Every structure is written in structure tokens, then in C-alpha cells.
Please model this.
Amino acid sequence: MSKKILILHTGGTISMSEDETGKIKPNSQNPLTDLSLNVNDDVQLVTEEIFNLPSPHITPARMLQISLRIRQAEAEGFFGAVVTHGTDTLEETALFLDLTISSKMPVVVTGAMRSSNEIGSDGLYNFKTAIMVASSDASIGKGVVVVMNDEIHPARYVTKTHTTNVATFRTATFGPIGIVSEGHVNYVQTINPQQHLPIDHVVSNVYLVKAYAGMGPEIFQALNKPTTNGIVIEALGAGNMPPQTLPELQKLLDNNIPLVLVSRCFNGIAEPVYDYQGGGVSLAKMGIIFCRGLNGQKARIKLLVGLSAGFKGQQLKKYINN
Model:
């Protein structure tokens, strides 16, 4: 019995072409849509172009659209799913799917750094490799993964690290969880499972702010309004803030606006280590939630999903810390 794999094309560089001036533009039709690709005799591909957008155009509402379609696919008897996506926001969509899809079916997100007609285009190879991973029994229960450049990365931690290099996707601190070699899918480690929330809507006005030397209260003053649902802060070092920001951070907390803190560092995790004014210890005592292991854009997605599920207070804190 063949394994049905749902292919969801969403756009991005993998679906674009270079014009005569060297500029990369979307095509009127995704060149992968009608592609005849023989991966394995026991794999049946069902292709849908859910939309065709560059990844900076992707919103949480679009991410939810993908998530709902994949959730429906499980009931339709699909073994797994592959999502082709632009790389700029690929990591955010991948995490959103990982947080909102509770099934054990393999779900793979992939893309390309070079357009379909460029020399050395990586899209077709990444696409074929992603299908191999999505159709592998070894991928069952691994959560949503990102497959690029022969590596399998967990959606929770993978990030784009280079603007143009084909080896741009990396998992800081922890490394990839598997590789694809000579047609074989090999997992070398697993990550702890996380809570899945099959939300059916997404809240808005969840913001991301980056801390910097000499930062004052102005940005937080501007965000302190009734329409703000939550703020993620990329803090300094292990999780510290300039002291001038503290009074405004307290006002945000007093207005029941959840604040989630991560580190702006590429490697490592945010922890309340330093006990001085603005240090992580005092920030944690104020009620700021430390999110361990995620970068800013991913922590924002997790906060958004938690808020969309109706989580507040200690329930939200426990979810963010999971």
C-alpha cells in the first residue's frame, strides 16, 4: 500500500526564477507544482498550491491555514506532509506548525536559497530530500522538522543564519537531529516533546523588541496600550536589561501584559543569573517569563499560540517554559 504524502506549496525562492537582469521574482505558476518526481515506488504525492507568497508576506493567519490543512490531511489518510516555503520566515512557520499539530504524522518544511533557474539551484534537491524524510517510518512522532542541505533540524530550534548561503539553516547550541545520506534517513537524537495546542484562531498585536546598550523606556511606553497582547524581549547576555527600562517594564506587567524574555545571543539560553539592577534575577522576580532555548522570533510565535489558546498567568508561564 502506497504512502500518501501531501505537498503544500506556499511560494518563496524555491518557486521563483531569476530574470534577465539577475533579479529574483515570483512566477505566475510555481514550477514545482507540475513536477514529475519519482522518489519511491511506494510513495504517492498529492500536490496543492495553498498560496504563492514570498515569505515576508506570510502572517500567523497564513500559518494557521497551513496547520488546519495538515490536520485535515491526517483524517484523509495521508502518511505525511511536505511544506515548501520561503526561507525568511520558514523557521517561524515551522514552529507554529510544531506547536499546533498534535498528530505523530511526519511534517517537513523545506525551501531553497537559490531560485529554480539559477546555477546550483538547491530547491529540487531539498524538495526531493524532504519527501524522503516525510515518507520515512523513522520520522513518525519526531514533530515538525526542517530539511535543508541534507540535514534534519527540529522546528523548535532551527534558525536562518546566513542571508544567501545554501547551508544557512542551523540549530544553535543543540545541532541537527538527523541527516539524509545515500537515500537513507538517519536520526541521531531526539528532543523532548512539547505541548500541542490545536488553535483555530490567532491573536494579534504580539510584539518583539530587541534590547541594546543605553536603551531607555520609550519603546515600552509606546507599546503600553490596551491593544497590546504580549511582548517578547531579546535581552542582553544571559537575560539582563538596562536599568532605565525597568519602571516601564513594571507598568506593562501591572497592566497584565505578559512579557517573555530570551537572549539576543546566537548560542545559549536565557536564565536569571545576575543579581543586580536590571539583572535576570530581578527581572524574574518582577514576573517576566524566561523562555529557555528559543530565539526572539520563535518565542513570539510560542507566546502568540499560547495567548490564542487562552492561556494566562501561571498557565501561560508553564507553557512558555515547557
